């Protein structure tokens, strides 16, 4: 029962994140449109160039942070979290004019984040994975995951997995995996001995 509830809550939270991302996309598109319209008012604005530019950069950087936030919600990886923090720190440096100590601390923070992204994250940490149904055709899965799995004509993902697992003399079971260049496939779930879901894991370089 506990495992079932955990699975249900995980699935619900996933769709809630998708809904939030969609709402953010709509809001950001609206704000971007308004930002473009505001550009036309640069000649009629009574504000100084410095004030106008600072206000414009503030809005543009806020939109950029929103875009990165969408990436973080839809793609759970360490790199996307660091990118959101980088944009937030960059906005603080570019737009906000703090005292020298605040600026120094911001620069140090940026340096630490950049170093963490370069030296502490591996390809395994920065991977993209999607789960497709076992009844999904491999050709469609290739399009969805942007991979190039060598399949037979009209072959389904479950048949593809079984074929390669048998060729490698592996047991067809949950967790069983096969590997190609820059991509791996893992049996995510089974029902009645039939593969129902397959996870496609694509590493980023």
Automatic annotation (TrEMBL):
Keywords: Cell membrane, Membrane, Transmembrane, Transmembrane helix. It is found in: Cell membrane. It is a multi-pass membrane protein. Its main location: membrane. The chain crosses the membrane at residues 12-36. Pfam families: PsiE. One of its GO terms (cellular component) is plasma membrane. This is Transporter. The lineage of its organism: Bacteria, Bacillati, Bacillota, Bacilli, Lactobacillales.
């Amino acid at each position: 029962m506990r495992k079932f509830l955990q699975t249900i809550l995980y699935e619900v939270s996933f769709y809630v994140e998708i809904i939030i991302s969609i709402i953010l996309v709509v809001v950001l598109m609206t704000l971007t449109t308004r930002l473009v319209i505001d550009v036309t008012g640069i000649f009629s604005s009574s504000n100084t160039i410095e004030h106008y530019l600072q206000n414009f950069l503030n809005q543009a950087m806020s939109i950029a942070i929103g875009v990165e936030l969408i990436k973080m919600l839809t793609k759970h990886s360490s790199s996307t979290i660091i990118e959101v923090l980088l944009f937030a720190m960059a906005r603080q440096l570019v737009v906000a004019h703090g005292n020298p100590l605040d600026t120094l601390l911001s620069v140090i923070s940026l340096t630490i984040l950049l170093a963490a992204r370069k030296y502490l994250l591996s390809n395994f940490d920065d991977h993209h994975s999607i789960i497709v149904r076992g009844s999904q055709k491999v050709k469609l899965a290739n399009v969805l995951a942007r991979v190039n799995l060598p399949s037979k004509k009209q072959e389904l993902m479950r048949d593809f997995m079984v074929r390669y697992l048998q060729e490698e003399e592996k047991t067809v079971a949950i967790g069983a995996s096969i590997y190609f260049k820059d991509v791996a496939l893992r049996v995510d779930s089974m029902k009645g001995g039939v593969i129902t879901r397959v996870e496609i894991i694509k590493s980023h370089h």
